[in-house]
Design a protein that fits this description.
Number of helices: 5
Low-confidence stretches: none
Strand order of the largest sheet: 1-2-3
Order of helices and strands: HEHEHEHH
Largest sheet: 3 strands, antiparallel
Helix content: 40-55%
Number of strands: 3
Strand content: 5-15%
Length: 137
């Protein structure tokens, strides 16, 4: 299933707070840290199987109430931090819903087996020729 960031927006809530660390007056005055909460259980965007898959893949990100939380305070702007949170959530959900294809077992072709054995024989002859009184063909 393909979904966009716009599809996620109605089910997202943001909280902002002051960032810690360096930054001087900007850090002390402006609430730039963004915390995104996404309620997976109530979301109509995903089917039951998809929700199960997301739950198993993102179990360390889920809260007890089934909310996915993403926090960012990397930028100096609240808007940029909110966008970055949304990007992170979108990529997390996309990666969690990705189902890898099953590998089909194959055998090497007859020609590739013959080529490998031929190369192996040539290397053996080369090494024999390096010996004292080497073998000559």
């Amino acid at each position: 299933m393909d979904f966009s960031k716009q599809d996620l927006l109605p089910e997202i809530t943001f909280k902002t707070s002051r960032s810690g660390g360096k930054g001087g007056q900007n850090v002390n005055k402006v609430s730039t840290k963004a915390e995104l909460n996404f309620d997976l259980e109530r979301s109509p965007l995903f089917s039951a199987e998809q929700k199960d898959r997301i739950r198993t893949k993102l179990q360390n990100r889920l809260s007890a109430s089934g909310m996915i939380q993403v926090v960012t305070d990397e930028e100096r702007s609240q808007l940029l931090n909110k966008e970055r949170c949304l990007d992170k959530l979108h990529s997390l959900l996309r990666n969690a819903l990705y189902v890898p294809k099953k590998r089909k077992a194959t055998k090497p072709s007859k020609a590739s087996v013959e080529q490998r054995l031929k190369d192996k024989q040539q290397k053996a002859v080369k090494k024999l020729n390096r010996r004292k009184g080497g073998l000559e063909f």
